[in-house]
Amino acid sequence: MHIVVWQAMFLATGLVLIIDVVRHAAGCMGGEGMNGEVLRRKALEHRLESLEKEVHENSQVLHKFLMSLETQFGVSELIDLRELKRECHDLAQGIVANIADSPAPPMPSFDTLDSFQSKDDQLADDDIFEGHAKFDDRYGALGDIPNEGFEEQSHLGDDVFGEQADLPSTEERSATCREWRSTYGVSPGVSWGQLPLELQNKWRRYDCDIYLQDSVQGMLDHKDIGQRPRSQDHDDDFNVIGDIASSSEQDLLRDKEGLADKGWW
């Protein structure tokens, strides 16, 4: 009888130990459920706060060190920036001369009708009509090929050609183009900005890219653009770029030749 009691007690003790070990292992692996997740998150947040505080303190120490060097030795005054300014000036004049001589890139076009014709349809058209005749218009006559199935009108419309004869004067178109550029943030040859689609069509008909070529060359001669700030380097014996738009064509050509000699052009 005593042996049975001792065996039962030993078995119960063993079961309790096994259950405790299993629960402890589960707690270590699972982080004690939701409480473990909360503790780990708090630990990570504490580490992040400590790192941020350490970085801030290091930044303050480095700033104090640099300011002490500046106060005692005047490190920034020992650096001569005049040669760098000359190189920047020559490079800027070369860029302006290149832009003035090169045509402006084409404006991005957003044609709503082109989206109705998929790439597969375009490839099919190329395969069918390649080598037979030239397109006078996408939906126009095709030479020897019958015009059946191509009765759709051109996406330009007759009203566009009618408006070409009723365009405003050159002065009015130039003023309108400048107003659109300032109001909607248009960059000629680069971006439409916020210009609406109907005004984009008028922009093309008014030839605004031609009237605003001076903005590509100068970028400083329009009244809605502020004057370039003067250099704060009073000891510098070199004049900063200034108004590039006022440079003559001979100066630009001479700068191009100088850049070509240096191998920069």
TrEMBL record:
Record organism: Aureoumbra lagunensis
The keyword Coiled coil is assigned to this record: yes
Signal peptide: 1-18
Highest rank taxon of the organism: Eukaryota
Keyword Coiled coil in annotation: yes
Protein known as: Uncharacterized protein
Coiled-coil intervals: 34-61
Record key words, sorted: Coiled coil, Signal
